[in-house]
């Protein structure tokens, strides 16, 4: 019995209530033990045993329970600082950009940096790639939704779509799907050609490399001579520890059949391509910027971090237009902190414009309407750009069925060596391949992107995804669920990478706790609708390729009353689906756009807010146009570049 007691203690120690699951009692002296497993279902499983089996299995359970501890990260501690303290720099928001800036500025000894984050430490679900969706709509998400404009998203409950944003150390890099794509040279050439002379594509490339630490062995061998990735930066780039490779190869072949060739490296120079994505994950764990940039810097004496600290206002002289510091709410108390050199706003593409507006920086008329005195009349919140998604549902008979036992094995695999289904984000459905393409074969930028997720026949996740994650109305959900009862669903996310349509962020009120209005305005420019239809119709040809033919693949109709009258796969059908079912791939940007002219931009090429002293913006908001792909890598690049611009302007050089 002593051994059993030890096992019991071991399990309790790791937070497992043994008494609920297992009862052990002795029989026939020392060696024979009858074990009764009382399963959580209430069923009993009686079996005579000499004890070895029980001990072996119990110690295996103990091992797996204890293995949870190996997943935990050592997040930085909160600083003990008093209100009204002064720092050289104050950084607002510890997201993808803010963590980079705080790290790079504090690497100069003697330069004090205060990093303020509205959220707290990421939960363990952030570290485990497969659990990222479970953080949506919790306290780790800002829980934004777009504003119903009566035109788009009418197939969504309330006519709006969720805009998840991370609220924790690492910001959205702690909740995102971890795909790492730099975008293409033309993306940054466009920035440069608009007069942003600090952002020549050659410079941009250097800053991607500065951030990167390529761990992917395949890429390392492939690019040994070209040195196209950095290998000394803080941000580890690798591949996911899990995928269904046989299936992804079939998908790559299928894309290839419709004119999108497979490449070894999606960050290479080709424009039209499909391949395996690199990611900000390593060893089966997420590489957020909190992990890559904050943990290594946490011992620095000159870096101070406050968590659960909501910045409610920037302190800016009405006449001097000089930024002095910030006002925050922390532990239910209002506090002020002052910046000797600068305040850097890195609160993301929704919160950065919100904070600027609350502080009197924005369109004069709008500020007047909400009762805020205007300090600088700038187009804050305008030029909101986002990559939009349209669902394309293709079905097939590939024999895949949900397997709960397999799912448990996958969980055990994750605990054992960080592989299995949980080592891959669920947003993109367990598959690590994607494609980038254009309607014209000679274009210098991809226009479209596809992600692909697979749901097995009759999987309950289909309803969950369409009903709870995207929040489509009943008619839409039922039409997809109905077909998926008998077929596997290949859900292609069709993405328009460079929409012409622009959205807007506006204040709802002066209250910093009120969510701003988000007008996504998708498809307000008719060119976007034309382009999307062209791109989707290139994609739907995939049903005629050998793999999809082999599984009797077909395009399924998504039912939504206004669209039901149109022929499936016709231009009119897709136009109707696009406008009514569009959602986000979570890449908003441009809401404090960089540019030369203060009539059309908020920050200059060195990311200084036009007409306001000692204030910069460094995050996705500054992007004048979107990169060709997922935006986390490009935001981190912007923050690396931005940090050096700040250092240059203050005559600071780091020792590293
Ligand atoms: C669900 C999801 C999936 C995505 N998938 C991918 C992907 O696979 N690959 C990819 O490349 N990109 C992806 N992205 C996009 C990418 O993560 C973002 O572009 C990037 O993280 C934006 O960085 P940021 O620094 O601008 O903002 P964020 O990372 O959002 O950081 C802003 C930070 O500021 C804090 N903050 C805001 N307001 C205040 C305030 N007033 N006071 C104090 N703190 C404040 C926030 O809590 C947050 O921590 C995804 C994004 C999401 C949300």
Protein described:
This protein is α+β, with helices and mostly antiparallel strands. It has a domain at 2-71. Helices cover 30% and strands 19% of the residues. Strands 4, 5, 15, 16, 17, 18 and 27 form a seven-stranded mixed β-sheet that branches. Helix 1 runs parallel beside helix 3 (52-67), helix 7 packs across helix 20 (632-649) and helix 16 crosses helix 19. The protein is globular. The termini are far apart. The model is unreliable at 1-41 (pLDDT under 50). Flavin-adenine dinucleotide binds at residues 92-98, 116-119, 164-167, 171-173, 175-179, 310-311, 346-349, 351, 355, 586-587, 619-620, 630-633, 635.
Sheet-strand content, in percent, reads 15-25%
Structural class: alpha+beta
The protein's oligomeric status is single chain
Q: Which of globular, elongated, flat, extended, rod-shaped describes the shape? A: globular
As a percent range, the share of helical residues equals 25-40%
Alpha plus pi helix count: 20
Low-confidence stretches: 1-41
- Spatial extent as radius of gyration: 26 Å
* Small molecules held by this entry: flavin-adenine dinucleotide
Overall residue-averaged pLDDT value: 92
How would you sum up the major sheet?
7 strands, mixed
């Amino acid at each position: 019995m002593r051994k059993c007691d030890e096992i019991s203690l071991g399990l309790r120690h790791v937070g497992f209530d043994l008494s609920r699951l297992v009862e052990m009692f002795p029989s026939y002296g020392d060696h024979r033990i009858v074990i009764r497993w009382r399963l959580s279902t209430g069923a009993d499983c009686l079996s005579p045993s000499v004890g070895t089996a029980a001990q072996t299995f119990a110690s295996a359970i103990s091992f797996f329970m204890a293995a949870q501890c190996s997943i935990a990260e050592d997040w930085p501690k909160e600083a003990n600082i008093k209100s009204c303290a002064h720092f050289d720099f104050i950084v607002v928001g510890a997201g993808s950009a803010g963590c980079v800036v705080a790290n790079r500025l504090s690497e100069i000894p003697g330069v004090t940096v205060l990093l303020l984050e509205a959220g707290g430490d990421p939960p363990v679900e952030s570290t485990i790639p497969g659990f990222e969706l479970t953080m949506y709509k919790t306290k780790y998400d800002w829980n934004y939704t777009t504003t119903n404009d009566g035109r788009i998203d009418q197939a969504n409950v309330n006519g709006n779509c969720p805009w998840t944003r991370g609220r924790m150390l690492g910001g959205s890099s702690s909740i995102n799907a971890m795909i790492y794509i730099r975008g293409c040279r033309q993306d940054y050439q466009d920035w440069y050609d608009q007069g942003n002379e600090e952002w020549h594509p050659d410079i941009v490339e250097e800053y991607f490399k500065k951030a990167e630490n390529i761990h992917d062995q395949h890429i390392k061998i492939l690019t040994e001579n070209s040195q196209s990735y950095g290998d000394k930066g803080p941000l580890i780039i690798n591949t996911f520890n899990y995928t269904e490779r046989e299936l992804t190869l079939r998908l790559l072949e299928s894309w290839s059949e419709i004119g999108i060739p497979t490449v070894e490296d999606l960050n290479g120079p080709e424009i039209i391509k499909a391949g395996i994505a690199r990611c900000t994950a390593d060893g089966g764990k997420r590489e957020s910027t909190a992990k890559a940039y904050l943990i290594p810097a946490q011992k620095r004496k000159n870096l101070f971090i406050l968590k659960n600290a909501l910045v409610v206002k920037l302190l800016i002289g009405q006449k001097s237009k000089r930024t002095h510091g910030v006002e925050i709410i922390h532990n239910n108390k209002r506090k002020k902190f002052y910046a000797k050199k600068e305040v850097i706003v890195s609160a993301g593409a929704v919160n950065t414009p919100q904070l600027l507006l609350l502080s009197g920086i924005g369109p004069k008329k709008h500020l007047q309407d909400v009762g805020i005195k205007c300090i600088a009349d700038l187009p804050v919140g305008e030029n909101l750009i986002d990559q939009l998604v349209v669902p394309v549902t293709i079905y097939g008979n590939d024999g895949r069925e949900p397997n709960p036992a397999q799912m448990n094995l996958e969980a055990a695999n994750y605990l054992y060596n960080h592989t299995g289904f949980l080592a891959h984000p669920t947003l993109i459905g367990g598959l690590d391949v994607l494609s980038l393409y254009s309607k014209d074969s000679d274009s210098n930028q991809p226009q479209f992107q596809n992600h692909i997720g697979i749901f097995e026949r009759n999987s309950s996740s289909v309803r969950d995804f369409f009903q709870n994650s995207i929040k489509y109305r009943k008619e839409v959900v039922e039409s997809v669920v109905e077909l998926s009862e008998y077929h596997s669903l290949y859900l292609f996310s069709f993405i328009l990478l460079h929409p012409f349509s622009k959205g807007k962020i506006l204040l709802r009120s002066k209250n910093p706790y009120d969510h701003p209005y988000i007008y996504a305005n998708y498809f307000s420019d008719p060119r976007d609708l034309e382009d999307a239809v062209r791109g989707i119709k290139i994609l739907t040809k995939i049903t005629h390729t050998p793999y999809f033919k082999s599984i009797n693949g077909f395009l399924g109709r998504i039912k939504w009353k206004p669209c039901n009258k149109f022929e499936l796969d016709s231009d009119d059908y897709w136009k109707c689906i696009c406008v009514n079912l569009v959602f986000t791939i979570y890449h908003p940007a441009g809401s404090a756009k960089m540019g030369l002219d203060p009539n059309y931009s908020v920050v200059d090429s060195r990311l200084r807010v036009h007409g306001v002293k000692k204030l910069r913006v460094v995050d996705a908001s500054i992007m004048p146009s979107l990169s060709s792909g997922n935006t986390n890598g490009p935001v981190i690049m912007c923050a690396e570049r931005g940090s050096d611009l700040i250092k240059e302007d203050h005559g600071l050089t780091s020792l590293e």
